[in-house]
Fold each of these.
Amino acid sequence: MTGVGDEITRIHRAEWARVVATLARRLGDLDIAEEMAAEAFAIAVERWPVDGVPPNPGGWLTTTAYHKAVDRLRREIRREEKHREALMLFDTPEPLGVIDDDRLRLVFTCCHPALAVEARVALTLRMVGGLTVPEIARAFLVEEAAMGQRITRAKAKIKAARIPYGVPFREDLPARVTGVLAVLYLIFNEGYLASNPGREPIRGELTAEAIRLTRLVRDLLPADGEVAGLLALMLLTEARRAARVSSSGELVTLGEQDRGAWNRELIAEGHALVRARLAAGQAPGRYQILAAINAVHTDARDLRDTDWSQVVALYDQLVRLDPSPIVRLNRAIAVAELDGPQVALAEVDTLPLEGYHPFHATRADLLRRLGRSAQARAAYDRAIELAGNTAETAYLIRRRDQLAGACSWWPPPG
Amino acid sequence: MAQYLMSVLHDSDSLAPPEEMAAIDVFNEQLQADGHWVFAAGLASPGSATVVDARDGDPVFTDGLYLESKEHIVGFWIVEAPHLDVALKLAAGGSKACNRRVELRPILGE
């Protein structure tokens, strides 16, 4: 019966985080919570096709997992009484001003700044997202055993160092939310532009998972403007997914994309979020500004119709928040549309981004537009050398080889 | 409550200047007032260390640190905190007070 199978998959997506989160609090142990949640789902896969799906599947799963855990803990405690003490994970006593949901505790624990970034990503996908270790290993092109170890080590640190199972102190909240959003954005970006050659360039399962997790965090922190901003940014980026890679597996730039292939539903949702943030009248953070930039792009019929002065103004705002060279590079790309490639190139050439392939790709494009083919070719070569994504490499190679054609009528110097 | 070791890392064995010592005193008093204090001490220069190995009978003495490294521990605190978020705040306060990096590590419970 595939009907029940689909139903179980849907329930797994919807309930996994809640089951793990509730168990982690009640049992005081993240490791056992994860294991027992997995066991309860395995039992469901066996029983529900025969017995039918219970009326409250989430409750059924939590209770089943809890009973399994208690049985196991009893056996262990009998074996070694003193282990009981060690099994108590903590609970920060007060909810500290934000809503107290077990899933929120779980998110903050998995994204704790005392864990390495790769560990935060892996743990979040496993504990909150419910992805299996092999799935996460595949997503990041890491050996399954190594990924398993990464997660095990992170759980061991949580226990040994007593990383609290709770929401952070009020004064730490903005920084900790930023940390959570960084993890979610990292997951999204790995799906959106996989960094590894020999992989599909865009992996919908990772972008979809990142969006699902961000929706969950938004449900938990509805008043946070940056959470809304990140969700909007993801939706407006995801909306262009189908148009981003050609049938031959080559990256299609914004200007060349078939805008009819953009997902209107996602764009409408993203625009609504951006409008709501604008109406809130608070100074926007980086994700809200990035979302607003994407809203301008997705509002335009084509590249020429784009309100570039608005885009540059938003980048100016972003540069004030984050004057990093990468932000200034992106601003320069918009400046090229507004004030021409010469102005943009002058700005780009001041940036210390020698090892960053988009820097060379941008220079190559600007030089090409200025008719400086030889220099453009050198820049394309450097970009191709550094780029990891297959679709991007294919695009850069085509662009470079089109220069070759140009060279046949462009007299070589000297 | 759990205990954590806060090791102060530094790349020379020069002593802290007086204004740092004063900041450390203020920090220590705060630790005591807030009930986090267990113990703290500064260490003599790494050149004064001796490694002692008595595992195979007669002790063997080796001059110097057991690990050659650019950085070494010049002092430490042992503090008590309910969980890592509190301990991280203490470590941040300690790092500020002594103007050095601090390694925070849980001490195994009994």
Amino acid sequence: MKLVTEPNFADPDETYARLLAAHSGLSEAESHAFNAALVLILMNHIGDDAAIAEALALAHRATKP
Amino acid sequence: MAYEHRRLPYRRAPGLDAPEPCHDVVIVGAGPVGLAMALDLANHGQGSVLLDDNDRVSIGSRAICWSKRSLEILARLGVGHRCVEKGVTWHVGRTFHRDREIFAFDLLPEDGHEMPAFVNLQQYHVEEYLTEAVLANPLIDFRPLNRVAAIRPALPELYVQTPEGSYTLQARYVLACDGARSAIRTIMRLEFAGELFEERFLIADIEMKADFPPERRFWFEPPFHPGQSALLHKQPDNIWRIDLQLGWDADPEAERAPERVIPRIERMVGHRDFRLDWVSVYSFQCRRLDRFVHGPVIFVGDSAHVVSPFGARGGNGGLQDVDALGWRLAALLAGRASERVLSAYDAERTFGADENIRNSTRTTRFMTPADGVERLYRDSTLALAAEAPFARALANSGRLSRPCTYPLDAPDDPALPATSRPGSVAPDAPLEGGWLMRQLGPDPVLLALGREAPRIDGVRILAPALNDHLRQRYLGNAPGALCLIRPDQVVGARWTTADAAAVSHEIDRMWGRA
């Protein structure tokens, strides 16, 4: 399975706002823990090794260009 | 009650009085691996001299979890059923986080196997049974209190010290079964590369009466040992194995003291009505030799590779080394095989060691995460595990020893089930009046299911009546199959149909002659 990088949200601004709202009221440490849990949940949802590998590589490029 | 260590019979070595003839095989170290090695060679008609630096079986229970595969190997050596009878059979493991159980696993969910998934039994009992078998075997010359002080590996020649003086031994092959601190490895200055994990564990065997079920219980951050992990295993004779994570800062000497150990265990079991049987503090290491075969010196077991203990891959991995070497070395010495079989031992068991090290390293990472992101994901996984089944699959308190599937380049048929593909240990199955596994070895076997087997010299044909277990494990939807099973009970090749020439060719390859 190829990683979907074209827009895939019905309402991108709404989804982005929801992500930020989910962090509201969390300390920085709690936000990190929240993100870790979210990554694990979404990785399992995707499941496909190739798509996950592509996602990891893309995230890496975005972090350390 | 405490185990009573008897002294093994010491006899004056002939080499002290006159030079001994060159022996075929000298085995150094009479732990479970060395003892099993001598017995496995003897099963194939090959004698050996077995040296050990002391005259007692293991002090402390040390290895306790014997896997199904080890029990099958031990059964071939004549002691497997004694181990099962004496040991505590278990197949359920429970994993807890803080005060709640997050999941349980069953290691042997299907029936139709003679041996259970695991038996817990103190190493000294296993060594005692193996030692009795060794002493009763006329092909094995067992010499307790014979310590190897030096080796000239090229010849090879060993300098052996005894209470009555020193002598020299020559051998065609020296098998270094001398454990994690192998003297032979040290003398030969071989690099033992790998990783030391910055973590310490307290390991204790206690004697107490308790009615916990025979299950493996593992806790992450339990209330009785905050922030660390803990393991509880049942052994025979009311002995319980406890592992408690201490952190890297712990002082190993101080932590071994009973006044430190007893309160820790009291918090875990809830009372002080127990006796300390054995205590040790250890750190995790995963290391292996680059090669296990160094000319005529061959490394077997912990001398060749060490892993962290969660997963029971040390002793069980060592017995699988024995299994991979015995038939090959015996055939080489008998002139049936070429030296290439030793390269095959090296290739298969370095592969097996890598799999064990990989599993063990991953467990260690999960159990003792580094500060920062490793800990973040570990904690997150445990927090999710109670609600989300996928996170239970990630929670790693030890991936328990199973034999690897060797990457064999051998004939196979995609119509046949994956569980018996070449390179796998042949799955056991019930036969009329017995078990398949007991019918396999010490010679190669051609398992003929729903097919006429071609007759080939040196190959025993086994054509049992079909049943559901055999069908499921060896045939799938195919109407018939021929499986060539090596002397170590590993599937060497398989076909839905084959002629004598095809099978003969695989036999020749097995002996390193093609």
